[in-house]
Amino acid sequence: MSGAAAGRETAFDPEKSAGDLAEGVAIGYRDGHVLTDRPILAGATGVVWSLSVMASLPAASTHFDVPTAVRPYTLNRVYSGTILGVHLLALLAFVPQFFSWIGFWAMVVGIHVFGQGITIGYHRLLTHRSFKTLPWVEHCFAILGICCLEDSPARWVAVHRIHHVHSDEQTDPHSPLVTFLWSHFGWLMVNNREAQSLNAIATYSKDLLRDPFYMRIEKRPWILMWIGLAQIPVFFLAGAAIGWIGWGREAALPLGLSLVVWGVYVRIVAVWHITWSVNSLSHMFGYQNYETGEASRNNWFVALLTVGEGWHNNHHEDPSSASVQHRWWEIDISYYEIRLLEALGLAWDVVTPRHVRRREAAAKSA
Ligand SMILES: [Zn+2]
Ligand SMILES: [Zn+2]
Questions:
Q1: What is each CA distance from 290 to 34, 287, 321, in whole angstroms?
Q2: pLDDT of res. 61
Q3: Which of 70, 101, 290, 353 lies deepest, with the highest CB count within 10 Å?
Q4: How many CB atoms lie under 10 A from the CB of residue 280?
Q5: Which ligand is nearest to the Cα of residue 128, counting in written order?
Q6: What's residue 16's pLDDT?
Q7: Given this model, what pLDDT does residue 60 score?
Q8: Going by DSSP bridges, is the β-strand pair 132-133/347-348 parallel, antiparallel, or unpaired?
Q9: How far is the CA of 277 from the centre of ligand 2 (A)?
Q10: 353-362: long-range contacts (C-beta < 8 A, 24 or more apart)?
């Protein structure tokens, strides 16, 4: 861990990674970068990905073993049980009786709305503090993130900050330099005695735990389960109401069930794989704008799925920025949404990319 300075209050400094807010835990801040200007057309990403999945090939010529903190392997029962269980439930989507276009569109819209609980909430706001907002807005994003069943905000943030500090080193909790499948979800199947320890959470998510909202969740983790389960009756009742009002009483039950299968189970599985693709594909395939010293890549396919997060090499270069759009074609919808929040008065101190900050600073001093 670099730059640890326990017990120190750190003022917000957009020139530093927001990890500094967690008591000096520097999160991947690197300077003196070189804009390599050698974008590789990532058109073959899908094919290579499929081959890699089938063969579980090592991610690159550089290869290392899983983090030492996961050996000897012990099954993470909560994660593996949840992942297996929800994948099985999502298979109900193949039963024609559960299909409806309303359910399908609930899934599509839900991937974006709940997915932003991870992208804007867990990642850009809580992990990197790339903008400020009102407590209730932050907590709403956190609850949307919890609905994606990607663990508590403090635990997610701790693991992601460790990823930035130790990117593509053996201590990285989910580097594809082990294997593609390890980085995609294998690392979630087993316990990591360091990254998931109370000590890691206390160190890397110290700033979050000062907020009683997040501390309460850590002390009573069953809250996560109840929020996760609450989605089922909410979606069922919404579907049943729409069915009853639109097509009569007999349409209530089928549409209610359709919304549960597509709007909850399929949507959760989709958001999982989209999030996991950032850890796997965006550290394997794509081009690099910056020589960041690890394997992060800008991957258009993942950027499309994640409405921005796939420009991951840009993110590793400048983690505190609310935007990962460093070139005009690297569209970052999530950033536009943060700017929309700003326009509505719900976000401020939005951190722009470093090259924009420098240009603005130079214009000011001129
Ligand atoms: Zn990364
Ligand atoms: Zn990050």
A1: 6, 9, 15
A2: 62
A3: 70
A4: 27
A5: 2
A6: 45
A7: 56
A8: antiparallel
A9: 13
A10: 353/314, 353/318, 353/321, 353/323, 353/324, 353/325, 353/326, 354/15, 354/317, 354/318, 354/321, 355/326, 357/14, 357/15
**Nearest-CA neighbor of 208 among 148, 151, 127?**
127
Q: How far is the CA of 1 from the centre of ligand 1 (A)?
A: 16
Ligand at shortest distance from the CA of 127: 2
Give 189 Cα–ligand 2 centroid separation in angstroms: 22
Q: How far is the CA of 102 from the centre of ligand 1 (A)?
A: 35
Residue with tokens 């299909």: 99
What six digits make up the tokens of 281?
A: 């594909």
pTM of the shown model: 0.85
For residue 337, what pLDDT is reported? 98
CA atoms within 13 A on the CB side of 232: 9
Paired residues of 35 in beta bridges? 290
Q: Where are the domains of the chain?
A: 26-365
Measured CA to CA, the distance from residue 305 to residue 316 in angstroms comes to 18
Distance 25 CA to ligand 2 centre (A): 13
Report the amino acid identity of residue 356. Answer: V
Token pair listed for 53: 């999945």
Look at residue 31 in the predicted model and tell me its pLDDT. 40
Structure confidence at residue 62 (pLDDT): 76
Residues with Cβ within 8 Å of residue 126, at least 6 apart in sequence:
138, 141, 142, 153, 156, 157, 208
Residue 366, pLDDT score: 76
| The pair of three-digit structure tokens given for residue 165, joined into one six-digit string | 């500090």
Question: What stretches in the chain show pLDDT beneath 50?
Answer: 1-43, 45-47, 49-59
How large is the greatest C-alpha to C-alpha distance in the chain, in angstroms?
A: 71
Query: Of the ligands numbered here, which is closest to the C-alpha atom of 27?
Result: 2
Can you tell me whether residue 75 is helix, strand or coil?
Answer: strand
Nearest to 98 by CA among 255, 270, 290: 255
* Res 63: pLDDT: 85
Closest by CA to 284, choosing from 70, 53, 18, is 53
Rounded to 10 deg, the angle between the 101-116 and 267-280 helix axes is 40
